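note to self: dont lose this again. the chain is below, predicted strucutre after it. 207 aa total, dont forget to put it in the shared folder this time
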Amino acid sequence: MEKRLQKTLIRIVDDDTSFSGALKFLLETDGWCVECYSGGRDFLVGDSPSVLGCVILDVAMPGMSGLEVLEEMRSRGYATPVIFLTGHGDLDMAVQAMKDGAVDFIQKPLNESRLLEAVAKAVKWDESHRGWTIESTEEIKRFETLTNREKQVIRLVASGLINKEIAERLSLSERTVEVHRQNASRKLKLQSVSDITRLLSHIDEKN
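---
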């Protein structure tokens, strides 16, 4: 099956490698991109929290428990949603996990349909809450790579002027304006005037 969400990643954090391997197979069969970690510290060092998706986190692990990992994630500002797994769970642990910010709590042995439903729900939440923010942050970084002249040109494009009018405004040849516009669009990875206008509006709001 093709990966249905190439820009998302499901992280499995569990010290039981045979279990995490089986879970990885289940999720990949359902079309997800998956990365496994054998413990909380490995996850915190190796993960890229800016990548959308979710974390499937075992509660009972040597070294750092799942609750401790979640606490560290939140202290670092990681907003990735967490689904807790446990073979020893009780109501108090589930309540504490949800208070600490987990989006779901599932006991082992797993109900596969229940888990897949929880993963889809968590990823959907992450996309709706973090997706645009991450994308816009990357766009702002790309905007800062533009030269001053490219920024001038692209702002005039967003204001509705055509190349000829921009050339007259900046005392440039129309061909020079065209080159600056093409370079700016390529760097921004944005082609439509509406997308460029949206980006500039967001940048101006932040300033």
